[in-house]
Design a protein that fits this description.
Elements (H helix, E strand, L loop, with lengths): L1 H29 L2 H22 L6 H26 L2 H25 L9 H4 L9 H21 L7 H15 L13 E3 L13 E4 L4 E4 L8 H12 L5 H12 L5 H22 L1 H9 L3 H15 L4 H16 L12 H9 L2
Parallel strand pairs: 1-3
Antiparallel strand pairs: 2-3
Length: 354
């Protein structure tokens, strides 16, 4: 009798969570006044509240939560295996339904706290930028511009890397400076932290991530220092609700490329140059080589350092994680999947009016 009651409770929990997910998805997709309430009132409230709370703690609360979930999942799977071996089928069904209900509620919270932004009409367009189709000549002009900028920044750059506290603080200031011309980019109650998982993230090819449940921006501070300022700005863009990767890349470029510290500007232009010259290379290898020859030898050396750094971590784990992340992005309406990061080129064209 007790088992039957438990099964009924789990089925009701699944039905309620599914209803909540479908209703929230419909509200966001409808793009009416309820969607505006979600994006402009609810999200601003919950994200600011979470950052205000988590920003007071020096370590990543979200990473601790992830670790606890991993331990709980392992214990749960071992229990399921034990119940399966003992042939207790009703108990196994109950545990399976409980797990399904838990995952659905977790997904509902994900959508409610942050994930709904994947379904939002691009926020970059709200800032007045418009993308269009571009020619190889346009791409050449953009890449040439980025080569000049990255050469300038490398020549001016201090060679001493920023420590993480300086970097996080400067990134927050960069957004608030940017907010003077674009108020929607105001960044209150900073919560940017170094990931507790550190070097292990390199096997997955992860440089940073946003925890959607705590709204903490996590930066992998084991990657080369010349990458880190841009990664930091990228994760802050996610905190502000720019979910698509190309949008977060563009907003972080706007913030980092205007910082007086050349290490931020270099990180931004360096990252964008890699996207641009790769795409130009796929269209016209000769033009890409011409521009590569104009690049400062120090910049080329940093590219080699980057390649050597990630070669240490190459393997099946990196390949599988890339496939999984690609599917995650596509499931969240980013049709280009992992290639979405490079779609920032369209926004850069609009920014430089090429």
């Amino acid at each position: 009798m007790e088992t039957r009651v438990q099964l009924k409770r789990q089925i009701i929990s699944i039905a309620v969570s599914l209803t909540g997910i479908l209703l929230l998805t419909w509200v966001i997709a409808a793009d009416g006044w309820l969607a505006k309430l979600y994006f402009h009132r609810w999200y601003e409230f919950i994200s600011t509240l979470l950052r205000n709370l988590t920003g007071r703690v020096p370590f990543s609360i979200g990473d601790v939560i992830y670790c606890v979930w991993v331990v709980i999942s392992i214990i749960f799977l071992l229990r399921c295996l034990w119940v399966l071996i003992r042939g207790r089928w009703k108990e196994l069904l109950q545990m399976t339904l409980k797990a399904a209900a838990s995952l659905l509620w977790l997904y509902f919270v994900f959508l409610l706290f942050w994930g709904g932004h994947y379904r939002r009409t691009t926020m970059v367009a709200d800032l007045g930028f418009k993308t269009r189709d571009y020619t190889t000549a346009d791409l050449y002009l953009l890449t040439d511009t980025l080569v000049k900028l990255v050469n300038r920044d490398y020549a001016e750059m201090e060679k001493q890397p920023l420590n993480k506290e300086q970097m996080f603080r400067m990134a927050a200031v960069a957004y608030n400076d940017l907010a003077k011309s674009a108020p929607t980019l105001a960044y209150r109650h900073a919560s940017v932290k170094s990931s507790l998982f550190g070097e292990y993230l390199n096997y997955l090819g992860v440089t940073g991530y946003l925890n959607p449940f705590t709204n903490e921006a996590q930066v992998n501070t084991t990657v080369p220092p010349f990458q880190q300022p841009f990664v930091t700005c990228h994760e802050i863009a996610h905190q502000l609700g720019f979910a698509p990767e190309e949008d977060a890349n563009f907003i972080s470029y706007l913030a980092a490329s205007r910082v007086t510290d050349s290490r931020f500007r270099y990180a931004a232009n360096f990252d964008m140059l890699l996207y641009s010259i790769r795409r130009l290379g796929r269209r016209n290898g000769y033009l890409a080589r011409l521009l590569w020859e104009k690049t400062n030898p120090g910049v080329k050396d940093d590219v080699r350092k980057l390649i050597r750094f990630y070669e240490q971590y190459e393997g099946p784990v990196d390949n599988y994680s890339a496939v999984l992340y690609d599917q995650y992005l596509k499931a969240n309406l980013q049709k280009h999947g992992i290639r979405s990061y490079s779609e920032v080129i369209g926004w850069l064209m609009a920014y430089y009016k090429i």
